Amino acid sequence: MKKLTFVLLAAALMALTAVKTTNLSAAEAAGGTNWAQWRGPNSQGISTEKNLPTEWSDTKNVLWKAALPGKGFSQPIIWGNRIFLTTDVDGAAAPESHKPPKHMIGEKEFTHPEWDGVNRLHTFKTISLDRDSGKILWEVVSYEGTVHDYRHKRGNYAAPTPVTDGKYVWSYFGSEGLYCYDFKGKLIWKKSLGPILTLGMGVASSPVLHKNLLILQCDENLGKNSFIAAFDKKTGKEVWKVARPVQTSWTTPVIVKTATRTELVTSGNEFLISYDPMTGKEFWRAGGLKNNAIATPVVGHGLVIHSSGYPGKAITAVRLGGSGNLDNTDSIAWKYNKGTAYVPSPILYGDYVYLMNDQGALTCLEAKTGKVVYEGGRVPVNAKFYGGSPVAFDDKILLTNDDGETFVIKAGPKHEVLSTNSIGEPSRTSIAIADGKLFIRGDKHLFCIGKKG
């Protein structure tokens, strides 16, 4: 119980080996020019595009800069000439009669001095912009009113990233609902999932698509009400729902196709679990990270690699394609216990996994074995990395800190910083890549970075 309590309190400080694998994404059929979900194609933060800009400022190589209403940590997603994102606009004071839920650890009520947000009214919006000009094409109010629970003061209610299939776009706001729009901004359906309680830190897990299903991982507080569920993407009707024996998390699941089947892989404190995405049937499970599950799993070389960075450091690489309880079997390929960040996900690019800590120092591991290639690869400034996750393209890895500075790192077994770039305002989101351009969401603006001329 002491260990469990410690991990929960820690959450409050924020919010080819055996099997050949292929990630699936909403943009799979359309190629690499779209960035249709959290971490883009394959949910892995990797673009196959070449000749993208590697130098910029708040004016240099800025094709356009669009002012955004409110604030949000959701990553912009792109399909064709459309950009979608979500935002939260703070409003007037909430009625004094509005009371948030109590959070209990055992018989003791849990409170935190960094809680925020519940004392005000909020307007949650879904926004579409023109990719080529930055013009806002439409913005619709998804939800307006009081919010069910707190958020951490460094957090945001518009943290989950939307997802699109090229015809519809889905926005998720935790306790305040799930929304489906067409590309003209018309509401197709909306659905309440009930209260999603994450110790007053806010939600962050983003929806993922698989065939006709929209899938959400909803891990709550002490795990009494945690679940993962799939909904018909066209109607919002629940197709399946499975209880999860894990406490609160902020991680997004990944869809992976192996040689024999497709797996829906999830991280968690107590367990790592793989499901059949069409039915919710469990394929396998292994012991969890024993720390806060925030990072999205990375996939490659027949492995799915789970990680966590707080309160301890934990990485577990699992061979895909297994069944039952994988603990103490050769399905656990390797483990490591250093180098990870609290919030940002790692990235698996080529033969290597790159871990980043909260100061941006990189650790490079061999993906197949977990062998250390290098440690302590530094960026040239002191900075905090509590928001954006790395992205990669053309043998380069991009790390963005909370001040809006992006460091371009040479991929491979030797650490080298190629350039340092700033948009001139804070940023807490990951870069999106599409059509030869980088899309960087700052505190107040969305920047489109591209090579002029």
Brief description of this entry?
This protein has 453 residues and is an all-beta fold.
Can you walk through the features of this model?
It is a single chain. The chain has 453 residues and is mainly β. The protein has a single domain (2-449), classed as Methylamine Dehydrogenase, Chain H, CATH 2.130.10.10. 2% of the residues lie in helices and 41% in strands. The protein has one helix and 38 strands. The chain has one helix spanning 2-11, and strands spanning 22-23, 62-67, 77-79, 82-93, 103-105, 108-110, 115-116, 120-130, 136-145, 151-152, 163-164, 168-172, 178-182, 187-191, 208-210, 213-218, 227-232, 238-243, 254-257, 262-266, 271-275, 282-287, 298-300, 303-308, 314-319, 324-325, 332-336, 347-349, 352-356, 362-366, 372-377, 391-393, 396-400, 405-410, 417-422, 432-434, 437-441, 445-449. The strands form ten sheets. The protein has a six-stranded mixed sheet with strand order 1-19-20-21-22-26, with no helix packed on it. The protein has a four-stranded antiparallel sheet with strand order 2-38-37-36, with no helix packed on it. Strands 3-4-8-9 form a four-stranded antiparallel sheet, with no helix packed on it. The longest helix is centred in the N-terminal third of the chain and has 10 residues, at 2-11. The protein is globular, with a radius of gyration of 20 Å.
